[in-house]
Structure prediction request, 438 residues.
Amino acid sequence: MNIRQIALRILDEYEAGGKFINLALSSHLTDDLSREEKAALTALLYTSVERKLTYDYYICAISKRSESDIDPHTKNILRLGLCQMLDMRSIPDFAAVNETVKLAKNPGERSFVNGVLRAAVRQKNSLPSPDEAKNYKRYLSVKYSFPLPIVKHFDSLYGREATEEILRFFNDEKYTDITVNTLKVSVDEYRKALENKGVNAKTNPYSPASLRIEGSQNPERLPGFSEGHFFVQDRASAISGMALDAREGDLIVDVCSAPGGKSFFAALASCDKGEIYSFDLHESKLSLITSGADRLGLKAVKVSARDALSPDETLLGKADRVICDVPCSGLGVLGKKPDLRYKDFSLTEELPALQLSILKASASYVKCGGVLVYSTCTLNPKENEEVVTEFLAENLNFESLPFSLGDLTAEGGMLTLLPHVHHTDGFFMAKIRRKDTI
Prediction:
């Protein structure tokens, strides 16, 4: 079975079963495939999913059929073909057409696929799109392959120009951020180790232990992975770790900790001299935290399963710091998780109530004078500022705590990182403090 056949099978499974694309892919990355084949399969699959709304528009416009009139399997074949022709460009157009047509099951399907793809080749420099002047939101939706509700959401918050910059960032900016394990190696030493392997890395002005490597990277192939010299963590998450300001001897609770990055950052910041309780609801994810802490050599991290809505009574009122990174709509990580963009946008309306409940429960851990950092990887005031504002209005023994990190200033204790401005995930954080007295 070749890469295209495997990709088609995964796409069919993904579309039929509603799995996240990374889970659908993982079971197919077997030892039968070479490293290069795995990389090619991953790129083909993720790009086909990321750009499918655009591809579907082309398919329907060229064939003059509605989406409901095209068999899902056939549509997946065409998505793979258009992906190779328009975005991968690793082989000539005629070869991409011929190899894709071979995926079809019968003469009728082969004829249809062949016709659409050959027409796309002829129109390659003038493919159809919605009229920008008549409906720019629909135009942006098709151009960048984001469902219309997401485009309208960003447009309502930031306006047209910024919305297009955000969508472009999600599609075009591919990078890998890592946090260096400064208990084992200095940032300069590790940066030189990367350079010796031909890997260029840039520092982060807001989080000195962070480095950025251009392009998507397999962390296990980077130097020092097995030795625990780093872990993968977006700059935005690292910045929230800086805002937490963990110190030696702190008792820290991380209520939704998987896969562990914020717990690991807190352990490094406190020189691994404290107690960090890393809780997560899903027992299946705990091994990610445990194995990560073991690889990094962190002893302070204590891992166990716990529902964030049911705090550990033995820790109530005892934590110096609490990390409250809640489940969210993920509107800030649509570039890294392309299938998130196709989830039902209306489901975001259910999240603020859960987020507020988790924040209230998590606040019970904070001792007098202690702090909590609430965070999400989304760009949605209802899940961000409004949740924190409602919490503070109902809990007068807590207050916002302003903070600054370089030229990043959160005068009201709340900070939003925008992808096109800060070149990070879209991210929100709020720092609140339990008063010594009411």
